[in-house]
Design a protein that fits this description.
With about 450 residues, the chain is mostly helical. About 65% of the residues lie in helices and about 5% in strands. The chain has a five-stranded mixed β-sheet. The N and C termini lie far apart (about 70 Å).
Length: about 450
């Protein structure tokens, strides 16, 4: 019976992670999803081909060593990077579900409680976003759960592997080291036989902070990026459903009676929630906390005696359907993210039909798409100025200074009101300066001739 329930959770996870791509294929869109995933795919592709400039590993160059890039690069030796960007995060998501069950079992959660926690975790919109889109968040979540699972094992070999998992996690930022240290400290204070292990992990984090994180923070400073919202129901890509937040509040109410024993845990949760809304990468902790609290609430409501059993069943069904509809709605939103086939066709035309040394000007939302698919150097700085230039001399001066050869234009520029009918949109009709080289209805490529030579 237990295996059957776990298998159902696993199948549900597979269905939800594949759903955005099924919906995407149904809309005749065959491109892997998202702008940020294209950036990671580009870097991983260069690593796998040995083209990554070693100088960018220097902090002054702005690149931060990212283990997720090397994981994608490793996958590139077996499958194309486009497929790896779909397969790797989904695989990490499924492994995270399995490992989370073992973690909950290791801390003596009853099976039914663990089952409901897993259900809430899988039905969360954040789960779909983390493990459907190819971003480091997938690897971060996996490393957190894997590290804890191995830390709790009695085997010395497992502990060494947990230290390695936490070491990799430290590459994603010093705040991960701080938060993991706090969580381990709180747990080890309740289970003091594990304190020696905690000191080893603390030493690992301290060493990685000095060797890996400190140089970047000294040069680039701390980058705090907060969310514009936390509700997936309002369109946030990384957010909670209203039902999961309400359930987590109920779960907090149910465990409040243990406040004297668990005051350290409550304090830690407050600290975690604060940090989670300071920087995006820490949102994974909030999602785990909400899943555990909401799953516990669902468990208590399920086992609690009700005067009317039918009412209990109806109430739980409404909550479950609310969670399910919320995550499916989120899958639809994810499936509609750019790019589309038309944009990629346009960029591939640039790759095939333009000189390798050409510079292409694109709007900011299309930077990573253009960089990945066009194979050309991309310029996007001051893009808002260019679209609004109404004077041909000023436009030519701008394009000449930037050494721009081609301009990529798509329908989204019109929808977002970037175009000015008296600006570049009008100037592109000057046949002596601009020539439309490619047009597929969604986007087109304009060639700029600063001397009016239309040959080539």
């Amino acid at each position: 019976m237990k295996k059957t329930k776990l298998f159902v959770v696993f199948l549900l996870a597979v269905f939800l992670l594949l759903l955005p791509y099924f919906l995407r294929l149904n809309s005749d869109n065959h491109i892997f999803i998202g702008s940020e995933p294209h950036y990671h795919a580009k870097v991983a592709s260069e690593i796998s081909q040995g083209k990554l400039d070693k100088n960018i590993l220097i902090p002054e160059k702005g690149y931060r060593l990212n283990p997720y890039h090397f994981l994608l690069a490793l996958a590139c030796f077996f499958i194309p990077i486009e497929f790896a960007s779909i397969f790797v995060p989904i695989l990490l998501g499924l492994l995270s579900v399995i490992l989370l069950y073992f973690v909950l079992d290791s801390v003596n959660f009853k099976f039914l409680r663990s089952f409901f926690v897993l259900i809430i975790f899988v039905l969360s919109p954040t789960f779909v976003s983390f493990f459907c889109l190819s971003t480091p968040r997938a690897f971060i979540t996996f490393l957190i759960i894997l590290g804890f699972y191995l830390f709790l094992k009695k085997s010395r070999y497992a502990f060494i592997m947990s230290a390695f998992a936490f070491f990799l996690l430290s590459f994603f930022g010093i705040f991960h080291s701080i938060i993991i240290s706090l969580i381990l400290l709180v747990y080890c204070l309740h289970n003091k036989r594990l304190l020696p292990r905690f000191y080893v992990i603390l030493f690992v984090f301290a060493g990685s902070a000095l060797a890996v994180n400190l140089p970047f923070y000294i040069i680039g400073g701390f980058n705090f990026v907060s969310y514009s919202g936390i509700l997936s129901d309002t369109g946030c890509i990384f957010g909670f459903s209203v039902f999961s937040l309400l359930l987590s509040a109920v779960g907090l109410f149910f465990v409040w009676r243990y406040k004297k024993k668990l005051y350290k845990v409550y304090l830690l949760m407050i600290i975690l929630l604060f940090f989670c809304f300071v920087t995006k990468s820490l949102f994974v902790y909030a999602n785990l906390i909400v899943s555990i609290l909401a799953g516990s609430a669902f468990y208590v409501l399920y086992v609690k005696k009700w005067c009317l059993k039918k009412l209990r069943g109806l109430a739980l069904l409404v909550v479950f359907c609310g969670l399910l509809f919320s995550v499916i709605s989120h899958c639809i939103i994810i499936s509609r993210l750019p790019p589309n086939d038309e944009l990629v066709d346009c960029l591939e035309w640039i790759d095939v039909n333009t000189d390798k040394n050409s510079l292409v000007f694109v709007d900011i939302p299309n930077i990573y798409f253009a960089d990945f698919w066009s194979g050309r150097s991309i310029v996007s700085s001051d893009y808002s100025k260019l679209w609004k230039y109404s004077d041909l001399d000023s436009t030519e001066e701008f394009l000449s200074i930037k050494n721009i050869d081609y301009i990529l234009v798509n329908n989204d520029l019109i929808k977002t009101n970037v175009w000015d009918s008296n600006g570049l949109y009008f100037l592109l009709n000057n046949a002596k300066t601009f020539k439309n080289r490619y047009d597929n209805g969604y986007c087109n490529v304009w060639k700029y001739y600063n001397i009016g030579d239309l040959d080539g």
